[in-house]
Specification:
24% of the residues lie in helices and 17% in strands. With 103 residues, the chain is an alpha+beta fold. The strands form 2 sheets. Strands 1-3-2 form a 3-stranded antiparallel β-sheet. The protein has a two-stranded antiparallel ribbon with strand order 4-5. The protein is globular, with a radius of gyration of 13 Å.
Length: 103
């Protein structure tokens, strides 16, 4: 199991905002998307003080999965294990940083 499948901290740390049409083009179910403004949407559950994406199932730091992984929007695809966003999210949830993976 890779580190991301144990972690999930990024899915419960940030608002995942994207242009509204990306949800439609990727086939995201309406239940998984919230309107931010006329141009922008976000993953449901991430536009809160204590964000947690509705698509994240499982326990952070133990075992998680994204139920819309293949349809996830670009901001989700941009986070890489060990990058700055990963490090910040892991620290927010009391998890030790992991080394950045080279591509």
């Amino acid at each position: 199991m890779d580190e991301c499948q144990r972690c999930g901290a990024c899915c419960a740390s940030f608002r995942v905002s994207f242009y509204w049409a990306e949800a439609w083009s990727r086939g995201l179910p309406d239940l998984m998307v919230e309107k931010v403004n006329p141009q922008m949407a976000c993953m449901a559950g991430t536009n809160h003080t204590d964000p947690r994406c509705l698509a994240l199932h499982g326990a952070i730091g133990d075992e998680v999965r994204c139920v819309v992984y293949g349809m996830r929007p670009e901001p989700c695809r941009e986070v890489r294990a060990g990058d700055d966003k990963c490090r910040d999210a892991r620290l927010r949830h009391g998890l030790a940083p992991i080394p950045a993976l080279s591509e």
